[in-house]
Amino acid sequence: GDFEKFMNWCDEVKTMTIRTNADTPKDAKQGRAFGAEGIGLCRTEHMFFESDRIKAMREMIVSDTPEQRRKALDKLLPIQRSDFEALYEAMEGYPVTVRYLDPPLHEFLPTAKDDIEELAKELGMTVEKLNAKIASLHEFNPMMGHRGCRLAVSYPELAEMQTRAVIEAYINVKKRNPEYPAAPELMIPLVGEVKELKYVKDVVVKTADKIIAESGMDIKYHVGTMIEIPRATLLADDIAKEADFFSFGTNDLTQMTFGFSRDDAGSFLKDYYGKRIYEQDPFATIDQNGVGKLVSLAAKLGREARKDIHLGVCGEHGGDPASIEFFNAVGLDYVSCSPFRVPIARLAAAQAAIKAKNAK
Ligand code: PEP
Ligand code: MG
Fold first, then answer.
1. How confident is the model over 62-85, as pLDDT tens digits?
2. Which atom of ligand 1 has the smallest separation from the CA of 316?
């Protein structure tokens, strides 16, 4: 019917849209049904919260030594690998961008007294020791703390395990479906400095190349980064030297550029709307004057340093029509959004493409 006509029309005008954010095979299938042409952001942490895996995750977090950590990571590897296999199968050969673990680790630990006691028992440690561990992970500003690629700088074995899970899953799926064209895309989040990207990327490349060599298959993969810290936008030419793609994390980029919290700012921003200081929620529609200027600068610097760099957006703005028009105008290649926003995003992208063409 009309929906099908609309989808065909979007195909014809070749929307730049087009991926969707998905963490599970169910999300992926939903996105595909709405015409998404890949997954632009798989937030792997969502795979760790389910009951059968949270225990190994917690064991990893409370480890004192790399050896203990590796033991827990060995338990997580087959779980992640089978999750990624299911995701690749659901996407039937379309690209999937997997992001390395991003949130601060305290988010995975219990807070209630009873739960802490139970966990201590399960892990065979004293309640005092577990409480000390939890206290050591406390941060005053966790969103500006030990998260994103900083986790992999501290615990490279974590990035090693996640790389192994993605590449092995891809190899298994490729063996069953040799016609699937897409190559794995590995995304390193919250980068602010090219040397930290290079440090994590070296771990990723070393691990991936070893697995691929052992498989005897001819497999290419892409390593890219998220641009979500203002410093990274200013140094995007440097960063592009180590990145096959940039995905703008406009949620964090908005938070860090304005200097207010995406989780709390709603409570006072309403005063700003009423007084016409800000017209609208900058977490919903991109602030073109400020945050947008950084996106545009980083896109330009990135392209100057690496002509074929692939540029996209995976913050919530990727599903917002006014923001999509802006991203198209500054030359980004794709947007990624939640599955249910894919039809709106495709329509907005098609309209933006036509408007830009007519303006020429
Ligand atoms: C972002 O910051 O825009 C992003 C996509 O990552 P997250 O929302 O998971 O921090
Ligand atoms: Mg982010």
1. 999 999 999 999 999 999 999 999
2. 3
